[in-house]
Each structure stands twice: as C-alpha cells, then as structure tokens.
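Friendly challenge for the regulars: who can give me the structure tokens for this chain first? No prize, just bragging rights.
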Amino acid sequence: MKNTERNKKIILYVILAIGAFIMFFPFFWMIVTSLKTGFEANKVPPTIFPAKATLDNYVYALKTAPFLKYFKNSVIVTIFCVTITMFNTILAAFAFSKMRFPGRDIIFAALVAMMMIPFEMLIITNYSTIVKLGLYDTIIALIIPFTSSIFYTYILRNFFMSVPDSLYHSAKIDGASDWQFLWEILVPIAKPSLVTIALLNAIACWNSFLWSILVINSTENRTLPFGLFAFTNETGIRYERLMAGATIVVLPMIILFLFARKSIVTGVSRGGLKG
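First reply, four minutes later:
Bragging rights claimed.
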C-alpha cells in the first residue's frame, strides 16, 4: 500500500516537473538567445548555451527603439486600465451579488455566455468605434476597450456572494447605504480577490499586442510589445536582437508574477469556487 502511494507521488511529481519544464523553457530560450551572436542564434543544429555571452544585443535594442518612451506609455495604459476596470468590476459584482432586480441572474448568465466570444471577433467593431470617436493613434484608444471584464466580474461576484447576506442586512439596519457597505465593508473583505484581479489585468494590459498594432501608428504612442517591431525589416529578423527586446518587455511582468503568484492562485481559487 505504501509503495503504491509512493509510486503515485513519484508519477505526479514527474508530470509536474515536465509541465514546469515546458512552461519555463520558452523564457529560458529567449534569454539565452538574447546573449548569443547572430551566427549562433541561427546555427543549425542550435546550441543551448552561447559560446561567449554578450550584452551587445541589449545595447543595440536600447539604442534602436526608444524603450523608455514605450515603457512610459505601457505604464500609463496599464495604470488607467487597471484602475477603471477595478472600479467597474466592483460595482458590477456588487450589483449582481447583493442587489435584487428583475432579470438579474438572466442578465449575468448572458454576460458570462459572452465570455465564449473571442476578442478577435470584436476587433472590427471596436476599431470602427475608435475611428468614429476620433481616437485613432492615441493612448486613449489603448485604454477604452479594456475598461471592463466579465471574467473579473465573475470572480468577484462569487466572492461577494460568499459573504453572508446577514452582514448586508445588519449594515442596512445600522443606517449604512449600499455605497458605504460596498466600500467600507465588502471591499476590504474581498482584498485577496481584488489583488488577484488587479495583477491579472495588469499583466494582460502590459502584454497587449494585437490591438495596439491596429490603433497605433506613430512611434510616439507605441507600447513595449508593439515596440518589438523595430527589430523586423525587409531583409528578415535578427532573432538575437528580437529576443533581447522581448526580454526587456516581459521582464517586469515576470518579476511581478514571481512576487505575486501566491496571491493570484489564492484569489482565483477563492473567487472561482465560491458562490
């Protein structure tokens, strides 16, 4: 019996190790490629480690593309997207969890069903709207489509529903308004889920690429992912330089995830399983 349990654990650890390797290897390959010369990056068969690591690709990347400008634009977009999304998500989750109005559950079910519609199917409509509003090639165009999320509302609504209604009724008896109950009682209780939502939204906004290609034309308004286009030209792609630029782009989010991974897992599990 003990041997059977031990074998199960060994198999589980092996599967987890393989999964971890598959997830980690692209980041590892990106970093080691950024340290190679152009000859080594295109060598067949490829080499795992560079014969002599060099930082010339990073120097070239920082000189070729104005990463400080791209970084500032990415920070602005991320901060505004996260702030507005958090505010809208809190209000929507409260309405669908604690307030009573006709068709509440039907409306929420319809919104959840819309999660099956990929963002790519809405791009043309969103693009037309942005152009009609005269916001093409502006930072605002990068923010507007990402100011709400059904998925984040679903997570937070489930957490709010796990809070007993008796607490809500007690607050109402004490004279608290819905607004006071939400911000003074419910939001502090839901801090783990809110932190998770903020982190996931920040990562999504930071890595947004497809939408920025469509609505941004000038170098002045580019964000970091779009800035990687500076390493492509008519003659081909210099992969070692592209990997150096990609490392600069994703490094802040990797660091953020490493520090906040426990909060993300805890918040998703608590918000996704309750309610």
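The chain has 14 helices and two strands. Strands lie at 232-233, 236-237. Your move, everyone else.
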